[in-house]
Amino acid sequence: MTTGDIGLWGVPIAVIGGAIRVSTPILFVSLGETLTERSGRINLGLEGTLVIGAMTGYATAVLTGSAWAGVLVAALAGAVFGLVHGLVCSLPKVNDIAIGIAMMLLGTGLAFYFGKPFIQPVAPNLPAIPLGWWSDLPQVQAALNVNVLFLIGLALAFAMHWMLRATRPGLIVRVVGDSSDAARAMGLKPAQIRTIATAIGGAFAGVGGAYLSLYYPGSWNEAISSGQGLMAVALVIFARWNPIACIWAALLFGGAGALGPALQSVGVTQGYYLFYAAPYVLTLGVLIATSSPSRAMAGAPGELSITK
Amino acid sequence: MKVIGQTPGPDAALAVETLGMTMRFGNFTALEDVSIRVAAGSFHALLGENGAGKSTLVKCIMGFYHATSGQLLVGGREARIADPRDARALGLGMVYQHFTLVPSLTVAENLVISRLDTPGVIDWRAERRALDAFMAAMPFRVPLDQQVSRLAAGEKQKLEILKQLYLGSRFLILDEPTSVLTPDEADEVLGHVRGLCAAGEVSVLMITHKFREVTAFADEVSVLRRGRLVGQGRVAELSHARMAAMMIGAEKEYVPAARKGSPGAPVLELSGIRATDRSGLKQIAIDSLTVRAGEIAGIAGISGNGQMELMEVLTGQRATSAGEIRVEGAPYRASRAEAQALAVRYLPEEPLKNACAPRMSVIDNIAFRSFDRKDGRAAFWLSPRSMKAQGTDLIDAFRVKAAVPDGPIAALSGGNVQRAVLARELTGAVRLLIISNPCFGLDFAAVAEIRARIVAARNAGAAVLLMSEDLDEVMELSDRILVMSEGRIDYEVAANEASLAEIGHHMGGHA
Question: Does the predicted interface ipTM exceed a cut of 0.90?
């Protein structure tokens, strides 16, 4: 092969392609978590929601033959999980972190139980747009084969940013997330608003799960998420609860995840396994570097149980 | 000019009047036949001690409470206010003691979202134009793009007032608006409020207990005591001493509690103590304070003048930036070992919070001073049997009504928690007893008993430092009276030479 051989240039191209491919579910989960946390709650259960979204999305696509129907059902399943989390946390003296962990275990457990029959069948994939048509290089074409959901995720990030700034619901979410007292003084019901925000956040995570099973890796199995839902929750802190910053955080995480396979593909045989750990090391490093023992985290919603 | 979406309200200052306002909670009368008239465009001060009924009155006006009887006139017409929304629609607004702003939102966002009719999609350009026009018409401004968490306390207070005006309030209730401000900030804010009144924009009813602010800014004053209106008049015609007399009550003979012996050697000595107060803005500065054995030194003062912080310094709950505390000549840092060795005992205010582990049992709480000691030496193993025996004895001796001595202390009534803590603190040798508001919220019998125990400790030779907002209590118990005002002790007098008027004058701060 000579035409496709571009040597070490393959690494950055593969990293860019990987960033776009891997980041999509993380982007969706972190956007959903951003909305939830902006309203003053933490939903650690999004890992479970992601897996249940992957399972229900895949199963629906298998049964109906439509990948988009799968995405819709995954969003609905995610919303139900978010709603349950939100409603339980609205009861007095319930800790949102503990409920989140319970929901995470419940979600993965249910998905494995109901998902068993769907490991074998093949579902239709979500469509991708070949944005690399201008290039002759197959590597570039592969890297720029962008899934529609990624573009939708980008649009949603900007929409959420606008919503939080310039709409009444957006301001209300921020008021409730920052000061329950001020919210009550305005006649708002914090628990109700947080429950709605958690349900919508769950729907986002469900869509992220559908992407996993219907596009990349593109099949349903029990190891499909490998903790991406949890990483996405951590990335929200890294992104300082800002939807636009969630895009960069997700791309960075995705790119780091693509580093190992890319190095392997150009023939690096020693130590590339270490690069598989890059996204986790990166997340840890960034969180340590951006936090401070003395000053409070800038941009943290005041009602979050981790920042109180 | 019409601000987008603003509810059409009155366009000039409102007169508000209460007629024979009475509020009863069960048998307790919080407010009795109070008639106050706030003329349109006037600045009216409402004075009174804690529990005098000031908050009850304004809550009746704002619709949080429904008065048992009496009428409210707004703009000369009778108004029925079922809830705070009605009050808002009539143009009545209230600025609370704590801030109700959302810290992470900008000033502009806070103002826009506080409206009841914020549109679904906010047209920021139009809102900005309206807000700029609104700010331009105000005598003072707050930067619109600043995040509220970055504003100083004075700026936040100004924003709270601006917010009420933005919402169309034409009658403002300010609930101790300067309690979190420095004196300079307070003067600035109140000066602007006065300007707004003079311009006929609003009428103001301000709850306060600072005489200085009343004389400097208010037109008229009403004084409440124990739920009754005890004085009213134009500020220009009233002296501080007169207002203090109204607030505290008529000059009466105090019968000092039976006492014997005379003060001995100094036990507690404070010198050059400096600490910051709760808000982090004001300084507590105690240059020198001495309490001798066999005397009760009483610190009088209106709440919020640094007594709580001084208590926290003495109990080791608050760090000092300078100065020294000595007990019997030895430096004292309020460690458990020092308190044990020097026999220093405390009865802080809110003892359930400051001196108890609420969920632990009454017996355990009573044992806090002694559980780890046996025959005067440190012990590792607890002895539940002797703890229980001692606890039961003390419960009987101090007549603590504890249905279940093994049950949590939080289940006891306030008076019984107080007795239980006193039982613990007064057991064994006591060289120094430091007490804050020991009888707050207790019934008559409990008050008499607790005061008798404090005097008994003094008669037994202990040095007692008593801080109390209840002037009667200080007058009755003390051998020597000190007055604390704005973080300093600025008056001292022997109890037998004390005059209520003079003490009241110092409590209100110098004008």
Answer: no
